[in-house]
Specification:
By secondary structure, the protein is of the alpha/beta class. It is 44% helix and 20% strand. The protein folds into two domains: 77 residues, Chemotaxis receptor methyltransferase CheR, N-terminal domain (Chemotaxis Receptor Methyltransferase Cher, domain 1); 193 residues, 3-Layer(aba) Sandwich (Rossmann fold).
Length: 282
Amino acid sequence: MASAVLQSMELTESQFSEIRALVKTTCGISLGDEKLQLVKARLNKRLRTLGLADYDEYINFLRCDRTGNELTAMLDAISTNLTSFFREADHFDYLEQMLKRKIAEAANGKSPKRLRIWSAGCSSGEEPYSIAIVACNSVPDLKSWDAAVLATDLSTRVLEKATEGVYSDERVKTVNPQLRSRYFECIQTRPDRLYRVNDTLRSFVHFSRLNLMGDWPMRGPFDVIFCRNVMIYFDKATQGRLVERFRELLAPGGTLFIGHSESLTSLKHQFRYVQPTVYEKA
């Protein structure tokens, strides 16, 4: 009996082709042939939760679900969300210097006290909260600014975690102790110490679910866009369209950060190269 159940949960190549075509159409993610076993491992749990016998039933369920809830659950299940506080620290060093220039421009009346930053693919919140820490720490009178960080992700699961803003001791180890004491509060002591980001950061960061392949309700302009280690899941044509949409939303001279495993070299674009993974709207 157990072997029959295990057999019923197999994902064939044709079933995988249908699922990855749906994923590509919905959110632009390209799943290579090598992802079959990963998708199977993650979606088997969905089949068990729904009480479905095999992937033919699951695919039919996806097609008939007019609410779109199961499509969202499927995308949540197959999404990979690897992140940490101040990941790729050179980006945050650059952001700090950029903010100092913006402060000087505002002081001289050359620009308004306005700051908009978008964390696209924010995962469980470490990136946008890191951005908020840099902004709060760099701009002394930030409360007098019209400032906000928009943080979006495809996954509702990680957005719930991000909105909660609670992290284990292990997760906050990469945060400077002084910054940790200033922007986090310990809400649970040992042996399982937990930290929550404080109200200052929480009020500065606004989380929302967004499919990068769909419509974007925000109009910008943004001073900075972080889209790191997201485009690696897209084909070149999709990457090119996404980069152009980012450019349209950036203010003149605005900055785009991408991941260190990514590059715009093979794409046609109108950004000025600043340094590896850092580009400026020309």
